[in-house]
Amino acid sequence: QQQVKQSPQSLIVQKGGISIINCAYENTAFDYFPWYQQFPGKGPALLIAIRPDVSEKKEGRFTISFNKSAKQFSLHIMDSQPGDSATYFCAASIGYGGSQGNLIFGKGTKLSVKP
Amino acid sequence: DVKVTQSSRYLVKRTGEKVFLECVQDMDHENMFWYRQDPGLGLRLIYFSYDVKMKEKGDIPEGYSVSREKKERFSLILESASTNQTSMYLCASSLGGQVSPYEQYFGPGTRLTVT
């Protein structure tokens, strides 16, 4: 029930296309859903995050869509660029501080954007 | 900018050696974490700490221990390194409390090879 399931494991998109990565969860107590981006040789960094009181959040070319009833959320990258090539992790969390603030990560999606 | 530094980028150790991985954060964060990252398995939490001298087991603590004597420093210890502990190790920190508690800031990682 603590798992976050992420798909696909890898994704190849042409430059200018739309990249879509999906995540699903079971625990309805999760109340924070971030996406992290990791470039080779670097640690993950927060890209965008959403709370369950909204269905969509957009920051530039990156959008999170959230479906509370289906317990699913997804990352959409519009006009994908070769510089977006990275590994993307979805995550979920409960509550504040202590062990309840821990992030549960999906297994990651390796995105390659072809020029 | 939050900075999380890890003592080594690459480390090669022999089976049975005691290994210390050091992590330092400079933003007075309450929470600190150690993960290992393996292809296809994502980020798995080893140990975390939400206060000095406090530690809690994550999902895969076996074969590891931690130490947090000062707020800014969190050490991961492999008591007797084994080949199955060859991995990328990532340290992270987060603010804690009830103000933006969730975002985790990651270090660049230490790639450990045990031969």
Overview of this structure, please?
The complex is a heterodimer of chains A (115) and B (115). Helix content of chain A is 0%, strand content 53%. By secondary structure, chain A is an all-beta fold. The interface between A and B is medium-sized, with 24 and 28 residues.
Instruction: List how many beta strands of chain A DSSP finds.
Output: 11
In angstroms, what is the radius of gyration of chain A? 14 Å
Number of discrete helical segments of chain A = 0
Tell me about the largest β-sheet of chain B: 7 strands, mixed
- What share of residues of chain A is helical? under 10%
* Global mean pLDDT of chain A: 92
Give helix and strand order of chain A, one letter per element, not per position: EEEEEEEEEEE
Mean pLDDT of chain B: 92
For the largest beta-sheet of chain A, the strand count, sense and barrel status come to: 6 strands, mixed
Uncertain spans of chain B, ≥5 residues at pLDDT below 50?
none
Q: Total number of helical segments of chain B? A: 0
Q: What pattern of helices and strands is seen along the backbone of chain B?
A: EEEEEEEEEEE
State the separation between the terminal residues of chain A, measured CA to CA.
40 Å
Q: Indicate the radius of gyration of chain B in whole angstroms.
A: 13 Å
Biggest interface and residues each: A-B, 24 and 28 residues
Question: What is the share of helical residues of chain B?
Answer: under 10%
